[in-house]
From TrEMBL:
UniProt protein name: ABC transporter ATP-binding protein
GO molecular function ontology, one term from the record: ABC-type oligopeptide transporter activity
Transmembrane annotation, as ranges: 12-32, 52-76, 133-151, 157-174, 238-258, 278-296
Residue ranges occupied by any ABC transmembrane type-1 domain in the UniProt entry: 17-298
SUPFAM superfamilies recorded: ABC transporter transmembrane region (SSF90123), P-loop containing nucleoside triphosphate hydrolases (SSF52540)
Alphabetized InterPro entries for the sequence: AAA+_ATPase, ABC1_TM_dom, ABC1_TM_sf, ABC_transporter-like_ATP-bd, ABC_transporter-like_CS, P-loop_NTPase, Type_1_exporter
Organism: Paenibacillus thalictri
Amino acid sequence: MKVILPFIKPYRTSVTVALLLMLVELVVELWHPLLLARMTDQGIIAHDFHAVLLWGAMMVVIALIGFASGIINTFYASDASQGFAFDLRSAMFGKLVHSSYAEYNRYETSSLLTRLTGDVNQLQLAFFLSLRVFLRIPLVIVGSLIMAVMVDARLSLLLILVTPVLFGVLGWSMKRGFGLFRSVQNQVDRMNGVLRENILGIRLIRAFGRGVHENRRFTNANDDLQERTSSALRLAELTIPSLLLIMNLSVLIILWLGSERMAAWQLQVGAVLAVVNYAARITAAFSTVSMIVTSLSRAKASSDRIAELLRLEDAESPQKGSALETGAAGLSCGVVFEQVGFRYPDTAAAVLSDVTFEIKPGQTAVIIGATGSGKTSLLQLLPRIYENSEGTIRLDGTDIRFWPDERLRGQIGYVPQEAQLFTGTIKDNLLWGEGTASMDDVIEAAQRAQIHGTIMNLPHGYDTVVGQKGSNLSGGQRQRLTIARALLRKPKLLLLDDCTSALDAATEEKLLAALKLYPCTTLLVTNKIASAQSADTVLLLDNGKLLAQGDHNRLLAQSELYRRIADSQRREELASNV
């Protein structure tokens, strides 16, 4: 909770006003039975109509005061809780944006979505109800006990004995509920994960006829959620009736003892009525405990999950003596790896080991190798998506750890394996890479990426709406759009991670020729030997090690593995042409 509490501070004024108004409501509620007792003894029993009017009018006035206090309290409680949720959600989103990729990958997408939405909503509701109900409930119980003792201590003795026992039972129930509802929230994550996979993979599911299987997966996850939720709610369902049974029996005993003392002229009717009224208010307070147990248990589980997210470490800041201080004016952009090693967090095996090479400014380098050889991992070290575990990576002679992330990444155009597009127009998607670019720049980038002609053949050209994740475009069209988006940034270092796999040979040849003329350093991850033939240098990776470096002809002459890859692809090409 220490991580969560600072988000309440900006709303101290609203919280203070809400609490003061809640206290006004509390005073009104505790005063009401005393006025009722006075009206009963001095008015109804004494047949004094004026006393009835007097005490009745006072009851109406304080009821109106309580009503007005409740309305205004709701306004301030809503203001504080909504602002609190807004700030908390913004901070969580900011933490995700600025956290290191390794930290980000610790959580599934479904879990992050649940924390940003459902968990924040649970805390918002608990905060609002705390200002409206939760804090008032224990005060009503304690205040009613005190007032009952002031009316008649002997008659209130039973309430004094029973109430602490009920609080103990309630505390045990809430402690058990925290663990149960955390289990519920974790299962919500898992169910959302299954749901998300099915929504995103609906085409594949239908193509493979796996609808029944996926329906069974979702049903199992849903059944598990229902079972865990039922277990959590059953605790409250068993606890509350027990509390109410004890309280109602206590009220019956109070009525019996009160009637005995009234018969002996030891107690007035109004006193018995007031004590019973206070006992009824204590009973009513405990009747809302089920809501408190459920909401606070959910809120505790949610706050733990949110705090876990807020404790994520930000991406590593530049070291002292940054590139700005050493006088580097920008990226030219040469790339040097010096004995670089890398392993993913929480894994012992090295993905890259002792990788050393140099790419001169303006050169095009192709990175080739078998699946799992470390090609993508190598590429992701340059924009510091991940941090290298060993060695040094230099851009234009400067260690990339000395560059502020924003400036470093501003010089890099990165195209990942999966072509990620957003809902909006084609123009919007391209400008996402560089929002200040002109339309001429957009068209130029599209032409270099060999997608301009395709766009112009669409019904609305650059204003054509792209479906979710580019669902209304082919794989090759999506890949070329993401390349155009990267080019629009006018990068000095272009990183292409196997993003031409869906292109036909002719289109890919034109694209690579256009990129060859583009004034930047280019690193292209690919499995196609044809793409390597025109490259300035080829890096051959195998099991995380750099086996060879040189141009296409040199590797054909010196590397047996490279020759095998080339021969295999040549045979496949000949077979496909037969």
